[in-house]
Specification:
mainly alpha; two-stranded antiparallel sheet; elongated; single chain
């Protein structure tokens, strides 16, 4: 009897699903006008709920309606911020660079199907153009990054939070 074992790759990258979370921008309630507007909205929501309420309503339903009135008032007056949405991207990967690299890939696939010398020469031209485009875009991106360092420190802090 042969014993076969399967070894799993423990170094495999695991893709994490980042969840979007919406939070109310409660810091805006520090402003007096926003506080007043918020209080008015809460009062309106509670008054509207009391008009539509039966006296035999259970405590849990009353709490849910009260909570919803507070949250909707906060959302309308303070607004929402969405966290966990920001995608990582490379500054130098522009539409132009993307198009040139795509043309190179198309030329390579065409050469693989035809195996003709003219298609190979075309692919080599596209490959050189793609290399140059990526090189130019990267150097431009690094120059822009370096220019940010010459500015005030607040701008430098924003470089790392973007």
């Amino acid at each position: 009897m042969d014993l076969v074992t399967e070894r799993k790759n423990t170094n495999a990258l695991v893709k994490k699903n980042k969840k979007k979370s919406k939070t109310i921008q409660a810091y805006k309630l520090r402003d007096k006008e926003t506080q007043k507007l918020y209080q008015e909205k809460v009062d309106e929501n509670i008054d509207a709920h009391q008009e539509n309420t039966r006296e035999s309503e259970e405590l849990e339903q009353m709490w849910t309606c009260f909570k919803n009135s507070i949250l909707t008032a906060a959302e309308t007056t303070c607004g929402l911020s969405v966290k966990g949405v920001k995608k990582k991207f490379t500054h130098w990967w522009t539409e132009e660079v993307k198009r040139i690299v795509k043309d190179k890939k198309i030329a390579w696939k065409k050469y693989l199907t035809t195996k003709s010398q003219t298609d190979y020469e075309m692919y080599k031209e596209k490959r050189t153009a793609a290399k140059n485009a990526v090189l130019m875009a990267k150097s431009k991106s690094w120059k822009e990054f370096g220019e940010k360092w010459k500015g005030p420190t607040k701008i430098i802090e924003n470089c790392f939070t973007e």
